[in-house]
Amino acid sequence: MPATHGRTGRPPVTSRPEILAAARRLIDADGWEKVTVRRLAAELGIGATTLYHHVRDKDELLVLVLSEYARQVPLPVLPEDPRERIVVAATTIRQALAGWPWAAAEFTTDGLLGRLGGPAVQLVEVIVGAAVECGCTPERAVHVFRSLWYYTVGEILVRIRSRARPPVVFAPADTPHLSAIGERWPALAAQDTYEMGLRALISGLLPE
Amino acid sequence: MPATHGRTGRPPVTSRPEILAAARRLIDADGWEKVTVRRLAAELGIGATTLYHHVRDKDELLVLVLSEYARQVPLPVLPEDPRERIVVAATTIRQALAGWPWAAAEFTTDGLLGRLGGPAVQLVEVIVGAAVECGCTPERAVHVFRSLWYYTVGEILVRIRSRARPPVVFAPADTPHLSAIGERWPALAAQDTYEMGLRALISGLLPE
DNA sequence: TCGACTTTCGGAACATGTTCCGAAAATAGC
DNA sequence: GCTATTTTCGGAACATGTTCCGAAAGTCGA
């Protein structure tokens, strides 16, 4: 009695969920940067090209797997006070400012901004729209921003697993001009800058 | 009389400026995405691996070439009215918001923000700092953001040469959650959103 | 003149993502 | 059973970035 699976043709040797599970195993072992198509195929005991019958490309595969990790990040609790809610919105927007125009706006919107609405939504739309306005076609922007997406979710993953915050270090060599400005305005302490900028965002969001 | 070049060893068959010029030729012909190491070497009539004796990797090469293009972008003229200067600052910041955390902040800072100073500088520092605070180590962030840098400068190049603005099109499929929000707040017209967001940024920048 | 030294060159090889296309393995119809 | 059909599999091949290492081509000192 041949095993039937409800349709014609050669039976699949694996499935998309199995592929994602194997990818998770590799990521947990060595990190998402070390995931290669051939390694993943070896982990599954199949040929490398077979993967391309289950996912469009490696890009789609990583998006699928890393999105699973992103869903593990607990969402912040929304305060009752509207002004405090605005603070949460501003913080969320700051995450978007850190380099997540599309993908991160999507991710963030899914869990948080959709419940805030109003000016926060508008400002995020401004952020997202700015990328397009700067000359991006959506297709290319999505492709480029995806690497940011990988990176950010990869960092989220690190945080989930290690519960440790990576050391925050600025290398002046990486930002010579900003560093030069910092020398000309030595009064700009890091904490002051943070609070000032956050206040700027919040005051811009608050109604008069 | 053997040609002397002032030092010992086999004479170089090419130089870094020649490599950059050849890269520019390829970029002008087919765009920066089509630049490959082997193609560039063929353009120069040398072996592919020889390039690695003049630049560290393709990354450095593209940064060098595209930075030349970036320098061609004319800087906006600074208005006299301080409040109008703030508008220019806000616009510049919006460019940074579009996804240029480090490299673009550098690029923008070099020509513009360094002359504005004050709160504009602080807010850009907030933007840049946010990336680090979200868990980026500078090394990896620079690496990831570099692709944005390529992309953005590539677009600048397109604009320089064609003087045409790429069509601005939003594909709702790329941003399902934002699109869903847009449907729930249909009153958010694009122009209103733009002005509101710009006003939010400006009012946050202006002193009380 | 001639060997020693120094610097650069570039072919061969490797890792990786991806595509092509024929083989393999099941079912369906007769 | 046997052929046709359908679906999946995966080896071979290709493009690309990069490294290794021996060959090539100069200068320098005796």
Q: Care to describe what's here?
A:
Chains A, B: Pfam families: TetR_C_1, TetR_N. Chains A, B: Keywords: DNA-binding, Repressor, Transcription, Transcription regulation. Chains A, B: Residues 13-73 form the HTH tetR-type domain. Chains A, B: One of its GO terms (molecular function) is DNA-binding transcription factor activity. Chains A, B: It comes from Actinoplanes cyaneus. 2 copies of one chain form a homodimer. In chain A, 63% of the residues lie in helices and 0% in strands. Chain A has 208 residues and is mainly α. The longest helix of chain A has 25 residues, at 138-162. Chain A contains 9 helices and no strands. In chain A, helix 4 (82-97) packs parallel to helix 6 (118-133), helix 4 crosses helix 9 and helix 5 runs antiparallel to helix 6 (118-133). Chain A has 2 domains: 16-70, Arc Repressor Mutant, subunit A; 82-169 and 198-205, no CATH class. The interface between A and B is large, with 79 and 79 residues. The structure holds a DNA duplex (30 and 30 nucleotides).
